[in-house]
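Give me the fold.
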Amino acid sequence: MKKVFLFSALLVVGLLASQFLEHMGSDAFAARETVRLLTMIMLAFIMIHVGFEFEIDRARLKSYGFDYLVAATAAAVPWLLCAGYFAMFFFNPTQWGALDTWTAVLLAGRFAAPTSAGVLFAMLAAAGLSGTWYFRKIRLLAIFDDLDTVLLLIPLKMLIVGLQWQLGVILVVMVVLLGLAWKCLHRIRIPISWPWVLGYAAAIAFVSEVIYKTSKVINDVVPVHIEVLLPAFVLGCVMAYPNGRDPHADDAREGHQEGPDSRREQQAATIVSAAFMVLVGLSMPPIAGGDSKWLAIAGHVLAVTGLANLGKMFPLFVYRREAHWKERLAICIGMWPRGEVGAGVLILSLGYGIGGIMVTVAALSLALNILLTGVFIVMVKRLLGSVPRERKGR
């Protein structure tokens, strides 16, 4: 668990440092752009390794469909709860009939939906849970959760800018990538050592950025933004395993990171995960309360955080045949951490002119969840440790 607390401390360091970036004057924009690009590269590296260890049982397609529905529900409920809270407390009843009001609260509330896959996987691996049924299940749910978040951003953008061809391009790319992962799962032999993976991650981030910047020149309102999470995950999925080597042989060791099991590879993965934690904190938008009373803001932050996490409790009521109730509760808690995707939604909200105290509360709620990530993982570890051996998930 030492690594979990180290990663938590690095998140806090990054979060605190992020609040000083705005005081860098003319260099603030360049600093945030650098942080954003580095975060994308580190996230891509982690997700390539996640995809590398991801396996699909083609005889269980129905169960995957059910898993997606569970993840989609666990993403939709906190989103709607937080959007409803924002509408109730930050808009007058006379404004509830306006489309602009619901567009604003739905976009701002979307920050509560995505589980931070990169943060979660790094933390759970650090806690030694990589070889468990729990990890395999929550890995699937977290990936589906983030995928659902990206998909649902498309209709939200349509509410803001209308039907645009760029949104169709994003959807087509996502479908093609998922089809590639299905067809070529662990069949393509390419180098898998960490320098190569870091190069792949940088290339994915670079291509994503080029597409984004180019499309922004064409249409500044609706650029084509292909998030690195899915392409990186798919690349990991298609990478073939080394001949005669079990990629999961070392999964149960505490501190094991996703990816190849050699000591050199594990050290590199740990360093990348540590850097990613700092960068996630640095990616947080500036937090300012203006003339509002901080006591009132704190109350809103606690309420929104509670609603966001309450909405993630749906998995507690499913998987009853597969797992003990403590494992199901641990899945819910494991989906509480937020991070890069939630911060990205908030930044997107700011880009569309949605701001004020509502976004401040959302940003502080996100920050609070980041601060509590280590606590959540400890709770998960203790819950799983108290499950009777004969009742552990398959």
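The chain has one domain: 2-386.
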